Amino acid sequence: MKSLLESISQPTEIQNLNLQELTQLAEECRQRIIEVTSQRGGHLASSLGTVEITVALLKNFNFNIDRIVWDVGHQAYAYKILTGRNEKFDSLGKAGGIKKFLSRDESSFDHFGAGHASTSISAALGMAIGRDLQQKKHRVIAVIGDGAMTGGLAFEALNHNGALDKNMLVIYNDNSVSIDPNVGAISKLLTRFASSRFYNSFREETLEFAEKAPFSERLGLKTTLQKLHDSAKSFFSPPSMLFEQLGWRYFGTVDGHDLPELLDLINHVKDLDGPIVIHAITQKGKGYAFAEEDAHKYHGVTPFEPEDGKFVKKKSSGNAISFSQVFGNKLGELMARDEQVVVVTAAMLSGTGIVKLQPKYPERVLDVGIAEGHAVTCSAGLATTGSKPFVAIYSTFLQRALDHIIHDVAIQKLPVRFMLDRAGFVGADGPTHHGLYDLTYLRMIPNMTIMVPRDGEELRGMMELAYNNESGPSAIRYPRGNTANPDENDCSQLEFGKAQILRKGKDIALFAIGLMVDIAEQTADLLEKNGYSVAVVNARFVKPLDEDVIVRLGREVQLLVSLEENTIHGGFGSGVLETLSVSGICVPTLQLGVPDRFIAQGNPDEQLRSAELSMEQIYSRILERLPVPAHKKIRKKRIVSPKILAS
Fold it and tell me: Which of 362, 392, 436, 557 could form a disulfide with 352, with the two C-beta atoms 3.0–4.6 Å apart?
């Protein structure tokens, strides 16, 4: 027998369900989310917290016509399930499957793509403006989590619509504040009264009377009545003050898991004019005890056992450690050594590997919230005082602070050290989270030093260089994933701006950075089995490049190849080609990087193949571009394929 969830083919069918059926539907959605994320991983706690909000919105609105924008998207799994994607939800995060975030090319119900935070109110306001220009009447809703409210873009949009007065509804999903029983009871009573038809009719009629009364302007009657309305609400509900002062009508707080209360409130306010905010208090991980107890741990999960909440252990990879952990460990050493070392992050204490440092150095480990621009400019201010700031932000999120990097840091030559985690492909999180553009957007900035380690040992060495570099900003980009655990008593002695020649060769030179260095070594092994003499260079520095090595090998070899896990445009390979051009060297080249398109979700190996950057593909592309070999005996040799060698 089909469950209620399985029987729903269109989200409009939810509007025909009664309260008991809606409650059952919410529970089935919650269990479906737990079932799939326990097998596939994904964002568990946030989506469990918005189940009732989702059901209430689908009951009150028709999203074939109305428009909804979810902030970030990791709170929208219930929405995906209830808008025609339940059957495919098992494919969450797989290549060709359901995406972890919202995407306009996945479903017509995803009205706006969302992978980065704080965009919902701004995008929804744009939709409301467009609606009014086209003289349409549909509703526009934004659902924003409390974490996203730390982003400046959200406040810019609130401020803008406070002036425009466009009809739209914001659901403020507040999952960090518990409902005090006494305040909650008063608040619930006031919210019911403020949203009632009687009160709103009375409010509009009194304000309309005050506006038309002949003595109104002289006595300031309308303004006085408006202040009385607002003051009464602000006295009993302090959070309303922010929204009301920005020009929004505030309704809250409401228990975001009380389905009858949500349904009633949304039904009352959905037809009111102007900007409306509903403040819903929710619990991350609601309905799954382990996630309720530790919402942070179960925010983004790998596969786990639903019965006991224990994560499925990956096969041991011996002496492996994540690059993030290497960064955190080395930073801890620097902070112990020098009280001027400070680290700034943007809501990524755990993800960047520094969460364990905060209790030890609470005044020097700063989390600014989802405010990347502020993180950068604040660090610039720190640098002017003689402090040594490290800015730990994912590559994809640092994109949001480009102007701050240029204007506030680089122009002033301030020694801010940017640590770019999750550089390169990131797997199931997909295009919104790939770190494939940092080499390009950083390389164009004057005074910037850029380093890329191939392993944890080099990361430690580069951090030491950055720590000692006071001449200007520096950036170190490193991937998601593991590396060999480096010896903390040993540190690679790197020479500034100098590459590492791993092997010498006369026919082909492979210049690589980061994880592509290992692939270059494997490719060189194949080429040498076919008789080619191959040089392999671990470039280490993208800016400044080791021009001496590039020029020398450019004069010696028949083909010069650059390899990078960055967009092909303007990155490491472009820098190599520019060096050859300035030096007047004409040598056949092959620039290998991520093509000019967005790479879909999947595992990292699938993404490398999609970008034609797997070892086998690189080997084949090099063979296609090789000039006539210098050694006659090579012409007589049978070319060995990767498959033959593997067997």
Answer: 392
- 567: domain CATH number is 3.40.50.920
**At 160, which CATH number?**
3.40.50.970
Helix ranges (H only) for 246-322 are 259-269, 289-293
Q: Report the pLDDT value the prediction gives residue 488, as an integer from 0 to 100.
A: 78
> Lowest mean pLDDT: which of 2-11, 155-164, 169-178, 526-535?
169-178
Do 383 and 416 contact (CB within 8 A), yes or no?
Answer: yes
Between CA 304 and CA 323 the distance in angstroms is: 23
- Greatest Cα pair distance, the chain, in angstroms, is 105
519-536 confidence digits (pLDDT tens): 999 999 999 999 999 999
301 in a domain, yes or no? no
Q: Give 566-620 pLDDT, tens digit per residue.
A: 999 999 999 999 999 999 999 999 999 999 999 999 999 999 999 999 999 999 9
Catalytic option among 59, 233, 284, 480: 284
Claim to verify: residue 480 and residue 510 sit in the same structural domain: no
My answer on whether 109 and 211 are in the same domain is yes
pLDDT band of residue 401 (cuts 50, 70, 90) is very high
Indicate if 565 belongs to the active site.
no
Integer Cα distance of 106 and 112 in angstroms: 11
Q: What is the pLDDT of residue 613?
A: 97
Distance CA 81, CA 92 (A): 11
pLDDT at 182 over 80: no
* CA distance linking residue 375 with residue 372, whole number of Å: 5
Measured at the CA of 66, the angle between CA 61 and CA 68, to 5 degrees, comes to: 90
> Do 25 and 54 touch, CB atoms closer than 8 A?
no
Do 507 and 602 belong to one domain? yes
Q: Are 128 and 140 in contact (CB under 8 A)?
A: yes
Count of the separate structural domains present in the chain: 3
> Which listed residue (28, 372, 458, 564) is catalytic?
372
Instruction: Give the separation between CA 242 and CA 596, rounded to whole angstroms.
Output: 43
Cβ distance 26 to 55 under 8 Å?
Answer: yes
Instruction: List the one residue out of 644, 563, 561, 576 whose CA is nearest residue 611.
Output: 563
96: nearest Cα among 418, 430, 371: 430
284 is catalytic: yes
Residues 251-290 have pLDDT tens digits of 988 999 999 999 999 999 999 999 999 999 999 999 999 9
Among candidate residues 59, 364, 400, 477, the one labeled active-site is 400
Instruction: Output the average pLDDT for the chain.
Output: 89
Instruction: Evaluate whether residue 369 is within a structural domain.
Output: yes
The model's confidence at residue 228, banded by pLDDT at 50, 70 and 90, is low
Residue 372 falls in the annotated catalytic set: yes
**Whole-model pTM?**
0.86
Provide the residue range defining the domain that includes 540: 500-646
